[in-house]
Amino acid sequence: MKKLLILFLFPLLLLTGCAPAIYSGPSGASFEDFAKARHMCYTSLSKESSGYIDIYGGSYNEAVSCGAFTSCLASKGYRENPNGGFSAEGISINCK
Questions:
Q1: Are strands 79-80 and 86-87 parallel, antiparallel or unpaired?
Q2: Nearest in space to 86 (alpha carbons), one of 95, 94, 96, 76
Q3: 72 contacts 44 by C-beta, under 8 angstroms
Q4: Residue 56 has what pLDDT?
Q5: How far are the Cα atoms of 14, 17, 20 from residue 8, in angstroms, in the given order?
Q6: C-alpha pair distances (Å), 66 with each of 11, 30, 42, 54, 96
Q7: Using CB atoms within 10 A as the burial measure, which of 12, 29, 44, 89 is most buried?
Q8: Does residue 94 lie within any of the structural domains?
Q9: What pLDDT score was predicted for residue 75?
Q10: Is 13 among the domain residues?
Q11: The pLDDT value given to residue 46
């Protein structure tokens, strides 16, 4: 019985853990503004850590601090909010 329960609950945990973050932002902000803010925060934080930066500004297997990334977005007016209007789906970052 426990094995059966685990077989059903484990996939649910994986699905809920992969849900994209939803953010609220400054009044009048567009999705493009949100995406630019995320990019600016990520690139500024990834420059502070060591790692290889490729010609596109990204890096291989480099993760920035999740706390620093969240703080940077908050300084630009974006905060995680399940009722917000901006989804990070498709523009996720690698953080630790």
A1: unpaired
A2: 76
A3: yes
A4: 58
A5: 11, 15, 22
A6: 25, 23, 10, 21, 6
A7: 29
A8: no
A9: 97
A10: no
A11: 82
Give the DSSP H or E segment for 68: helix 66-75
Buried b (16+ CB within 10 A) or exposed e, 59-84: beebebeeeebbebbeebebeeeeee
- Residue 2 within any structural domain of the chain: no
Give residue 57's pLDDT.
Answer: 57
Residue 34 inside a domain? The answer is yes
Tokens of 16: 């809920």
Mean pLDDT of residues grouped by 10 in the chain (96 residues)? Answer: 47 52 95 95 78 54 84 97 93 85
| Structure tokens given for 5 | 């329960």
Question: Among candidates 21, 28, 25, which has minimal Cα distance to 37?
Answer: 25
Which amino acid, one-letter code, is at 40? M
- What is the domain count for the chain? 1
CB 43 within 8 A of CB 69: no
Are the CB atoms for 70 and 80 separated by under 8 Å? yes
